[in-house]
Records
---
Amino acid sequence: MLANRLSASGEHRVCLVEAGPPDDSPLLRIPAALAVLVRGTRYNWQFQTVPQPGLDGRCGFQPRGRTLGGCSAINAMIYIRGHPNDYDRWAGAGNPGWAWSDVLPYFLRAEDNLEFAGPWHARGGPLSVASLRSPSPWSHRFVEAARNCGIPANADFNGSQQLGAGLYQVTQAAGRRCSAATAYLRPVRHRPSLTVLTDAHASRLLSHGRRVYGVEVFKDNTRHRLTARREVILCAGAFGSPQLLLLSGIGPGPQLQALGIEVTADLPGVGQHLQDHIDYTLNWRRRAAGLHGLAVGTVLRMPGELWRYLRHGDGLLASNFAEAGAFLRCSAGAGPPDLQLHFAPALIVDHNRRPVFGQGFSIHVCVLQPASRGEVRLASPDPRAAPVIDPRFLDDERDLAMLVAGFRLARRIGATPPLAATARESLHGLDNLDTDEAIAAELRRRADTLYHPVGTCRMGSGADAVVDAQLKVHGLAGLRVADASIMPNLIRGNTNAPTLMIAEKAAALILAN
């Protein structure tokens, strides 16, 4: 997005550096192919966490996009902005210009909503936002089951009210994935003012004193030095941005010195304050039309589904699988939601990395405002080594208590008509977990990320902040960070749309200078 906005006038030359390959695979266009992309390595970094005590010592899975468009090229395409209170908290924490009223115009600038209009939505932006073209009837059943549990229906989670149950809107155009690269980069690749380098792995930032003036990259087994006349803008995500800062000597001094890295700027907050949505998936096995899975019937349908998708852009292959969901409040009193549900008309176990035969449906439950905080560190000074990722999931007992409450609610919805209109079988003995202690033990056995890490280059004015409200790195000139790592706190929802908003606002801040 930044490459598009900054190169638009032709006055500024922009070089976009991407570590991964070009986004030229047909799999990156087909929404349902996310089930394959999550297991592959060509377009996915496939990071792992360190062992998590809160997850019975398991290592968590951390898929991250490795191509143009980043995670928007492999994610579930759900378009959620979050709650207005999220951004008002950002501004209240010492970040002027980041309140809800400040950021809404940048959401609208990006959006091309094909269904909704009014003050909450916009047409004409680069990012296509649409309703699913042919959702499973079981996604509608989920919404009805939620209503039968007292949860109101909500047709638009990005409208005046976030609470309720409904079908998600997605970043798709004509049934095809609309990634950040599809929306912003592909239409302008011809610009003389824009250069795009793929398969170019950034190894460190170049600096002279307290000014950053370029970046060193490895491409075709050769080291290259790219220099910038104005600024270097780091957009490598919640893991990659702190990693590159640390490799460049920008971060906690003692940590860098222990690895033999010369300290350029002692910023203790780099890599700290990692936050992520902890998630648990409840599964029920069931044979019925409209449910997907590794079954003979589904395999026999695939040639017809492929033909349907190629002709009309709908059907099974246009599904993002996480078709419906809900935002709920379990805490006492009125206020924003504290839990989010995702419904999939398919069995999903271990991020779909472990095949589960048969049909069924699943309900994911995640804690929207986790209290646990983790960190990202360097494993070594080698830029090709994966970073050390430690989310410290369920480190704070409040997160576990909230997840237990969410488990009970999601299980109740799964046992309510019309989802439970006929016989179904729960996986992992979900129906037999009666006590909070038994549920908590199950959560520790199987919970993991919902793929929303943020906060490792936190925006603010305190001693542990990394960037200011202009996204400039504290104490350095010529360097900004513009990605999910700058979020002071997690938003209530999926993080793709807020990350694009950050990029839109960053472009405006940079061009204003």
---
Amino acid sequence: MFEITGDDIKALDDKQLRTLIARLTIAELKKSGQPISGVTAGGDQNAPDGGIDVRAETEQNNFDGDFLKRLPLGFQAKASDMPRSAILEEMAPKGKLRPVIVELAEAGGAYVIVSSHGTVADTGLKARRKAMRDALGDLATKDQLLIDFYDRERMATWVEQYPGVASWVRDKAGRGMAGWEPIGRWFEAKVSGPNQFLLDDEATLVDARAKSQVPHSILDGIAIIRDELRRPGSSSRLIGVSGVGKTRFVQALFEEEIGKGALDPALAIYTDYNETPTPSAKQLAQSLVEAGERAILVVDNCEPQLHSDLAVICTKAGSQVSLLTVEYDVRGDEPERTEVFRLSASSEKTIAQWLKLNFDHISEVDRNRIAEFCGGNFRIARVLAETVKRGDSLGQLTDSQLFERIFRQRNDPDHGLLRSAEILALVYSYNGEETDADSELAILATSGNSDVETLYEASVQLEQREVAQRRGVWRAVLPQAIANRLAKSAIERLSNARIDQFIAKLTPRLATSFTRRIGYLHNSDRAREITARFLQSDGPFGDLLSFSDHSLQLLQNLAPVAPDLVLTRIAEAVNAPGGDAILNPVFGERWQLLSLLRSIDSAVCVGGSS
């Protein structure tokens, strides 16, 4: 699946060939547990001590590798064929041996010429090696120098050992696999992200499966996930709300400048699953595992079911593949069979710093205003910053006017789209593809003066404006700061009768999704009023205190809005005739109820209520 041909190597230009050699050199050293600080690439090959495009050395230089046969080693990269005459001129211009080659010989090192256009059989290889040996002339230490010639076919063989490098080469050669790409931006010996990674003292990473739920600093979190991904056959999942920088965080795992022990990008292959990659993630994972390839498979925007399928494949006995999926789960499912890490929002200081780097035309005052408004969300910050033209000022705009800018962006005001967005935001997520009479869009349409086709078109427009995201058939208005504001506006306009009509049609999944949204609106008087009605025995849900698995989930969702009231109603249910059965250790949902009570107790204590 990652087959590389000599023609792929031939397609590289001088700089790309030099980058390729540097990345392969680093990969082989990392694979052997050697330090990579001694790998350098670049420089003017026409300088007096030039003639080396990539150099590798370690403190001890006692390395005995595969394609790195001896250290110190100097590579000379040529995007051309190298017959005898070219070799002699390259190594000893005007008959004088390059000083850097003399140094390598004195150190007992190696010198290799790489020709991306050359392709030689055994006889031709011997001839080129002889030319290289002849170029050394009467150098006293020439027997101490190991020389070799790598043509494009040998380079292709080397590349095929590393999926991330193979992906990069195929992409540069115009044969990239649709939707698949290497991690970060490759330039000579370095790999960087699309922009500078900003370490935030206030942002945290939480191991979601740990009992302690202790937040780690971003740097410590990077170290933890790196350790997980170093283990072949491991499965990890990074989650967090939309716009907090999860994808950029993943790229930082492979950058040497961030912390210690960066992962090797030569092993990493990345896809955004919204791009519908070919082959599919499951096909690629299966192929890598069956071939015994050591790889780090990164799947962004990976929905829970796909993650579960990939985890089964990648954690098989003998697998050399480490899996990392990234997701803002619009359905709220809990991932299984994996290590789960949750990334928090960034601080205002970091958002302002990021804006300065990417939108230098915006004043410091406006950068701080955007950072304050966006609540640590890079996506909101970017969308809002893109509405600011040179000479504009946000200083006099209210929060409502800033929100209008985010929603409208550079389009004309659209009252109908805004109303549709409010309806779609009533639920945490919805099925955005089905449009029949029983579809979720049809049910949502009953909450306002709308219809299925109008909501469908609005959902598509919101995706285009990045105010909604998709995961398979599922859609969600995101980020939550926008969705909550839209939902708050919607419930303030809806009468109790209309809400009851809407709730009467809700499926169990939509009821869970709706109450989850209400749970985010704890600062809304209308949300508290609606929750109070839900908790009444004759309310729209009626059986909310039946303590079934579903009713407990609904109570869990509503508890942030009215923790005192939920606690009171639970107490009434326990004290009612037959209530002692709820406290019985054999009660099936007892653990869920206890978890709910603990969360309510925490909320009440924080709020200062009793």
---
Amino acid sequence: MNGPAGAGPAERPVVEVRDLSVRMIATKTPIVSGVSFDVAERQTMGLVGESGSGKSTVAVALLGFARRGLEICGGSVRVGDVDVLQLSGDKLRDARGRLVSYVPQDPAAGLNPAHRIGGQLREAFSVHENLDKRELEDQLAELMRAVNLPSTKQFLRSYPHQLSGGQQQRVVIAIAFACRPRLIVLDEPTTGLDVTTQRYILEKINEMAADYGASAVYVSHDLPAVAQVASKTAVMYAGRIVEVASTAKLFGEPRHPYSAGLLKAAPSADETNRLVGIEGRPPRPGHWPSGCSYAPRCPRAQDDCRAEEPLLGPIEGDSLVRCLHPIPLESGAGLALTAAPRPEPLEGTAVQVSELIAGYGSKEILHDVAFGVPRGECTAIVGESGSGKTTLARCLVGLHSNWKGQITLNGQPLRKGAREREHEQLRRMQYIFQNPFGSLNPTMTVIENVEEPLRHFERLSPRDRRRKALDILDTVHLGKDFADILPSSISGGERQRVAVARALVVEPEVLVCDEITSALDVSVQALLIEQLRDLQLQRSLTMVFITHNLAVVRSIAQNAIVLQTGAIVEAGPTERVLDDPQHPYTRQLLEDLPRMEPSGQAAAVG
């Protein structure tokens, strides 16, 4: 493989990965096969793909680590002059932190909940550095300034649970940079963060990589975030890299059909387009098809694609693509989209909220909130973490009862708690939780989970109940093949569609969706958004859509409400709120929103 796209031809890469392969120990089934790439000094390379593509497996393999049940079975990971995969024991432990470090997706998983923040930061230095007390405290203070966190005794004596998610992530980043490693591996470090916190974290990653002279591999399914930090991007599918190019080139003119599919699935912050998800599922390890692994899902596949496995080879300049029939340059075939349809306006208001004040104990979270949700339309509620979005959603459905004011459904007042509400009111307003893992009963099959609301709201025979549940599974594009398996056997996106089916099976008038796309792959998110749009059009469904993703708001919602610290600061038609925001907070959210165009810094490096 040639030098990295985005680095000059004479510039030797700091990180050289060659033919990296990982397999299952018991069956020898390949998980990652023949992965090769380079990263130059101070360069960030994005690594993108759907869940199951192997990108996180590659990420941890760069530290010489394989998850339980897996083993690294081939290749090399050279950082500077050291092949990490040739190290073992104390030498490997010393390399992790000093030579290469890791930032996990969940900062809580990277911090010990029983130890104070200061102790964990000091340990990051003391394990690898022989510093006296004054030197350690000086370096600790410098590191805390770099991530914009206080180095006061009070803060350093905090436990992880006493910090916000953004603060936890900055502590983890500080630990990763503590010993100035040559390579930083960032595995989905901003998933679930609001746009303001996300932008801050992305800027810190860029600044610290430049200041500390580190190379970085940024693993994510969030394509706009990758565009902001990476000068080069590699796309993975079924355990292999299928395209590598400068980020500007790949996002502007993708050559592999899979890369184009990911980009078409991403919502735009500036245009209301129909999203195009990638139908089908990535092949499971051990079930990779003969020929091109992407052929069963590829609209450009031909007979030779199913017979011959393509190699990763050069195509115009520094780009590499694994495809027998790549998308021609300037063909327009890769990224064409169509405008999203709008629902027909209906008369009346489905949900009306007046003078709503809500809190936890004596702490007030929502302050005099008032708005209406028009029938048959989608109203998005947006804001940073802590703005009160989820508290508001839980008040609507009766899961939070410490509130004052009035909430009506079709003009009928709702009591505070769900148990106090009328049976028919409960049926008419259904709630879809953010986390499908926690909202489905793991001991019940998919169809049993979907049938459960019918047991409460309708008197049906077991046969009729199953028939109705199967019909709704077809509606969310799952079908009978998923009926009799457990939730643990399906992907996160499929679980979320099961949760949607369970809410729809009782034919509600209003769906309250709480951050239901925040942890989904971009392709799965697109399929779910379009299914909800179709249901809205077919059933005149009213939706309250809680999210921190303004690009998703643009795609699905007809109206937008902006919450800041528990108060509405702006509301109106989505186009007006996003195109001509009146409040400084709304303008700041839009400014912080990552966009698909590579940032100036990333483009300059690449």
